[in-house]
Each structure stands twice: as C-alpha cells, then as structure tokens.
C-alpha cells in the first residue's frame, strides 16, 4: 500500500537537545502552535494531534505530516518515555487518516552533515 503525502502540510518536531518529556511537550506545543489549554501530558498530546481544530492553518484541507528529527539521543536516554511517545504518535495517526507521523533517520546537524566524514 502506498500513501501520497506530497501535498500535506509538513511540520518538523526537532528533538535536538530534548532530554525529557517536558522538553518533548514544549517542542510539540511550539512547532504545532498548540493552544494554551494543552495539558502537556500524553493524553492531551494524542487528543491535540488527532483534533483538526487545533492543527496549524492549512493542515485540515491538505492533511498533516509531522516529521520527527533528532530523536535518537532522547530515545537512548529515556527509552520508556520514547516508547510512550511513539505510542501517542501512532494512536493519533490511527484516529485521523489525514495525519501521518514520520521518524527521520538522518539529516543535517547545525555544523553540517551527520554522515561520517
């Protein structure tokens, strides 16, 4: 099965420097423009991710692709929290067909390529 994600609004969650759940929630709130009433807990995050009414402008019409990058250090440092975060992303995507969450496996750092030189 293939999914056409080309027209979706893309929001990047850059977890570089995130060391705990509070940091993850801050990144999500900022990047997605979540409302002030966002409770910064797992249940509130899944509810907001699955709720079209709080999505960034243009995402409802086009669909939303959330790309999570820089997650590996957080996953290594807080494996249990990261497992829960993945469950939250998956549950929200399961609730809403127009939401896709993708984990970026590589990319570029502030100083250049992450690839070995």
Automatic annotation (TrEMBL):
Belongs to the barstar family. Residues 10-99 form the Barstar (barnase inhibitor) domain. This is Barstar family protein. It holds the Pfam family Barstar. Signal peptide: none annotated. InterPro entries: Barstar (IPR000468), Barstar-like_sf (IPR035905).
């Amino acid at each position: 099965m293939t999914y056409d994600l080309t027209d979706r609004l893309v929001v990047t969650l850059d977890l570089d420097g995130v060391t705990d759940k509070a940091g993850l929630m801050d990144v999500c709130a900022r990047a997605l423009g979540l409302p002030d009433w966002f409770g910064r807990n797992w249940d509130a995050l899944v509810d907001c991710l699955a709720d079209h009414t709080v999505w960034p402008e243009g995402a409802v019409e086009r669909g939303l692709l959330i790309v999570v990058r820089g997650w590996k250090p957080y996953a290594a440092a807080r494996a249990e929290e990261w497992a829960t975060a993945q469950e939250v992303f998956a549950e929200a995507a399961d609730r809403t067909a127009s939401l896709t969450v993708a984990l970026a496996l590589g990319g570029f750092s502030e100083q250049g390529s992450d690839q070995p030189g």
